[in-house]
Amino acid sequence: MTSHRLVIAEKPSVAAGIAAALGVKEKKDGYIEGGGYLISWCVGHLVELAEAAAYGEQYKKWNYESLPILPEEWQYTVSKDKEKQFATLKELMHRADVSEVINACDAGREGELIFRFVYHVAGCDKPMRRLWISSMEDSAIKAGFSDLGDGRDYDALYASALCRAKADWIIGINATRLFSCLYDKTLNVGRVQTPTLKMLTDRGAAIYNFKKEKYYHVRLDLSGAEAASERISDKKTADGLKAACEAETAVCASLTKEKKTASPPKLFDLTSLQREANKLYGYTAKQTLDLAQTLYEKRLLTYPRTDSNYLTDDMGDTAAKTVSLLSGKLPFMEGAAFTPNISRVLDSKKVSDHHAIIPTMELAKTDIATLPESERNILTLAGARLLFAAAEPHIFEAVTAVFSCAGTEFTAHGKTVLAGGWKDLERRFRATLKGKPDPEDTEGDGEATLPELTEGQTFINPSAKVTEHFTAPPKPHSEASLLAAMERAGNADTDPDAERRGLGTPATRAAVIEKLVKSGFVERKGKQLIPTENGNALISILPDLLTSPQLTAEWENNLTQIAKGAASAGDFMAGIEAMARELVTENTAANKSKAHFTDKDEKPSLGKCPRCGSPVREGKKNYYCSNRECAFTMWKNDRFFEERKTAFTAKIAAALLKSGRANVKGLYSPKTGKTYDGTVVLADTGGKYVNYKIEIQKKK
């Protein structure tokens, strides 16, 4: 009997990439076979922790008396739409000719969890190996298979992942049911999403309570240098100073010149990529993650779910080749003077599970213009950042001139660029952007060049003017600023060597924001994220334990130690259970004076969700299931419709929900360049993404 190695990837597209790299070609039902390999896949989280109802009849209905729910023996579940693939994996694991199982799920804490859940629930006890890669290029896959790790070496990582999952279940289920029962309204509470909501409500309160104040500056025109006074709160005082200055002589009291350096930016981790894509293109964090994942599966981008901003020391040659390729591929680099310094982007000590996000050499075989615009934007952005990071520093001379006039000091600032460095490349890149980014999103060059000045220089009867200003309130959070706040939250309480810092992980922050929007606690207004009335009400009734990022900091410290084998998983879980008991005993009645929840539902239903039957509503950028536990979402900018140059309208969405098909006129064919009338069919497999296909075509 020929022995086979069973390889299990996290999703079908990754399995296909591995199969191609290993030369495995024979497609079967649910797996690919050849060359001594069986290559199959999960569908994301194939096996999950069961819902509370699985632990007894008393938990099917939500009531206060049944709390806290603390499973003694944990139950697992496979959702109905994923049962077939689980059965395939279980059968493959138990095949007599399978000698070992290779975990090829994403290399990180959650990838470990996805694989182990399937391995254990399938009752597999065959030897485990671990594939750990950061790129889907053939060379990276082959190198990974030549250096497989022993699966048991990752037991501590799995223990930390399991603790994270169970702890989130215990606190999430108990807190959600507790406050929902007390206030007679479904209130979704979570360890990460609730402190995130608190940051939004705090910002909202700061804006609401802000008192606008008027102030003035007196400005002197000194032969082309504009020098301004400090703030003056009284108009009469400002007018008096203006008149006095125009009758006197201004003297240059001091002139300071300082050479300064602006270092190149670091490479992108996922959060910084999401922030920049939100600033420049208005993409949500989820859209950017989905686009980066698609590019990863197309082998054009390295693994996106990373929190590292550097490449490993042994990637110097790869980085140099990629920089050279990008210099010729990206239009904005045409004619640019550029000598890269690759050493700037290399530092193995600052790389955790995965290195920073960069394009791959697969780009050499790809015409970027053929990619959908959104994918092209993300790939170009990642490539541009690699070029900036490897460029020379931006060097300039900052000049500060202080003048004295009428017993008052006036200051002028100037800047002279000595070496453009990476800023020259950035300026070229920004010039290619379609819309002009908001001023707050871009870093300008600052002050203009000052005229030649000398200390002691005098200006007789300078012209002066008074300008009126107002203090500005804090700005509402954008997705970019919220991601930054989530990344920083609780860091003062987090160990420097903790694997994860801030609220959530690079991979989960996008989903947290989406869940807050879907739950009705936050709404999007343009780029802004605004807490709703219900969002403010929820934060007002919750204890600090649930709204502070400190809880996450403590958890991550413990989980890091568990992953290192330096702390006990049992002790951690005992602490979580004690926390759940304390929540229930300390919150026994509703505080009706604080709770001001509304039941208004602004969005009409477009139809029933094909997965759970709940109403599907229209959002600004999608059509989403109103059931907070259901992942069904149809994105308006879905690549299927973008490639066919067709707007994904509410009318099409309603037809798809009603009958699974929609007749659409004027579909564009990328292959022929012609348009045709066709029937778009909803081909939803229950996975993370909703798929579509064309059934009928009538050529014009």
How is the topology of this model organized?
Elements: E1 4-9, H1 12-22, E2 26-27, E3 31-34, E4 37-41, E5 48-49, E6 76-77, H2 83-93, E7 98-104, H3 109-121, E8 128-130, H4 138-145, E9 149-150, H5 155-183, H6 193-208, E10 214-222, E11 225-228, H7 235-246, E12 249-262, H8 270-281, H9 285-297, H10 316-329, H11 373-390, E13 394-405, E14 408-419, H12 422-431, E15 458-460, E16 463-470, H13 479-488, H14 509-518, E17 522-525, E18 528-531, H15 533-541, H16 544-547, H17 550-563, H18 569-586, E19 605-608, E20 615-618, E21 622-625, E22 633-635, H19 639-643, H20 650-659, E23 661-668, E24 675-682, E25 692-699
Helix pairs in contact: 1-4, 3-5, 5-17, 5-18, 8-9, 8-11, 8-13, 9-11, 9-14, 11-12
Describe this structure in words.
The chain is an alpha+beta fold and 700 residues long. The protein has 5 domains: 4-147, Rossmann fold (3-Layer(aba) Sandwich); 163-208 and 476-586, Topoisomerase I, domain 2, CATH 1.10.460.10; 214-263 and 395-470, Distorted Sandwich (Topoisomerase I, domain 3), CATH 2.70.20.10; 270-392, Topoisomerase I, domain 4; 605-699, no CATH class. Residues 439-445 and 493-499 have low confidence and may be disordered.
Can you give me a brief rundown of this structure?
This protein is an alpha+beta fold and 700 residues long.
